[in-house]
Amino acid sequence: DGEVHINELKNGNTEMFWNPTSEVRRQRLKRHIVLFEEQTDFESERLWQHVTSAINKGDQHKATQEKFVLEEEQRNAARERRESGTEWKPLLFQHDAGTNEWRYKYEDLRPWDPLNDIAQFEKDGILQTMERHLPTRMSNHKATCINSQITRHKRSAKDGRRRKTSDQPSNHSQNTESSCSTPESVQELSDDDGKYLGFESLCTQCGKEMNHLKEIHSAVLSLQKAQQDIHR
């Protein structure tokens, strides 16, 4: 949210590359961090506080000294663990033998889903994503709704068969019963499938949820088009 300049080393000219407006500055993302007094000794802001303070004051010599003190403490701690045979078990990182690198245990590399993902935050060192779960809730509720209609349909068909067989002679009842087929349970059906099988339309909640998802999808498409226009 600050000015960015391009400096030409050959001729010494400076060109303004980015100068954000007050509106852009107001729209900046808020930075959420754990309060300093609530941080543990090994969290970066507390651990490197003296180095950071020296850098902010422009004291490179002091910053180098503080950095050396930290690194020496870490080397000594590693040496003591090695001598005592104590295994170091990181809480948030694990070693990747293939790349010989340390990787964050809870990294989330999936694409951001604007229809389902609300916000991403860190709690106790673990990266978490707050989700709407609308598609899952929709599909589960829709399956429950359709299955209940299937049950009613099967019960109605069974009652119809009972009435039909009771009106016929006993020697035909066995044939009548065997000639009637019961619909198999269907886990996933579209609205058209339900109508084709003679079921009622989906409940009001399903309709509202579907309309809500369509509105969100339409809004996202509109935002994407606006971003493309701005990019052009």
Structure at a glance:
This protein has 232 residues and is an alpha+beta fold.
Poorly predicted ranges: 164-200
Give the helix/strand class.
alpha+beta
The percentage helix is 40-55%
Strand line-up across the major sheet: 1-2
Molecular shape: flat
Strand content: 5-15%
Total strand segments = 6
Average pLDDT score: 76
Region (Disordered): 137-191
GO molecular function: lipid binding
Biased composition (Basic residues): 151-164
Biased composition (Polar residues): 137-150, 167-188
Topology readout:
Elements: E1 4-7, E2 14-18, H1 22-26, H2 44-47, H3 49-56, H4 60-84, E3 93-96, E4 101-104, E5 117-123, E6 126-131, H5 134-166, H6 170-179, H7 191-196, H8 204-231
Antiparallel strand pairs: 1-2, 3-4, 5-6
Helix pairs in contact: 3-4, 5-6, 5-8
Q: Could you walk me through the main structural features you see in this protein, from its secondary elements to its overall organization?
A:
It is a single chain. With 232 residues, the chain is of the alpha+beta class. It is 51% helix and 13% strand. The strands form three sheets. Strands 1-2 form a two-stranded antiparallel sheet. α5 packs antiparallel against α6 (170-179) and α5 runs antiparallel to α8. The longest helix has 33 residues, at 134-166. The chain starts with a strand and ends with a helix.
Main traits of this protein?
8 helices, single chain, two-stranded antiparallel ribbon, alpha+beta, 6 strands, 232 residues
